[in-house]
Amino acid sequence: GAVVSQHPSRVICKSGTSVKIECRSLDFQATTMFWYRQFPKQSLMLMATSNEGSKATYEQGVEKDKFLINHASLTLSTLTVTSAHPEDSSFYICSARDRLLGNTIYFGEGSWLTVV
Amino acid sequence: GENVEQHPSTLSVQEGDSAVIKCTYSDSASNYFPWYKQELGKRPQLIIDIRSNVGEKKDQRIAVTLNKTAKHFSLHITETQPEDSAVYFCAASFGGSQGNLIFGKGTKLSVKP
Predict the structure, then answer these.
(1) For residue A88, how many other CB atoms are within 10 A of its CB?
(2) Backbone φ, ψ for residue B53 (5° rounding)
(3) Which pLDDT tens digit goes with each residue over A21-79?
(4) Is the minimum CB–CB distance between A97 and chain B shorter than 8 Å?
(5) Helix, strand, coil proportions of chain B in percent (round to 5)?
(6) Taking CB atoms and an 8 Å cutoff, what residues of chain A touch B31?
(7) Closest-CA residue in chain A for B33?
(8) Which of B43, B46, B89 is nearest residue A108 as measured by Cβ atoms?
(9) Residue pLDDT, tens place only, A64-106
(10) Quick check: B13 and B111 in contact, CB under 8 A?
(11) Within 13 A of A2's CA, how many CA atoms are on the CB side?
């Protein structure tokens, strides 16, 4: 199947700093990518939908100024957590839609963020 | 808003038995229903999906059924094995796009040898 790569897999940052997570579709073009957040033992919560070349659409309750999403190319979307706080610590995971394969969704490996 | 309910939250079966996980959805326009398996700390893996134009789909030991009238769909795993132990998530598309997915809360399946 199609491959979605996410980097970094684990990151620790200090409170108040920003951290960027990258999501790449390696062997297909992803006009749409999705960003999720998952707390331990909980489900995936959609944060935002990222469309190539346009602004992301954020879900209710997600601060767009805190979670900056950029989707500058057909194979790369980035999530930047700005002014991180300990409560932002979570598992962040992206997914991408492959239009050529019937809109099937593929997930990245996820990124564990710990804010200390 | 759109919602997906998933039951049970935990399921324990003996190796070789069958496991059934059920989901209901609220958006009558939903037309794509994937199931994912997630092991601890790893990405969800698509195991099977079904679209609204069919009622059942099978892939070896895994099958999914869809009842559009009742707005529910189910995952059936037969002849369970210890390596089937994981958290399973159902999802339903919303907003007219198959890419926009709402996930159920997950079912932790334990298969005892």
Answers:
(1) 19
(2) -90, 0
(3) 999 999 888 888 999 999 888 888 989 998 888 889 999 899 999 999 998 888 999 99
(4) yes
(5) 5, 60, 35
(6) none
(7) A104
(8) B43
(9) 999 999 988 889 999 999 999 999 999 999 999 876 766 678 8
(10) yes
(11) 24
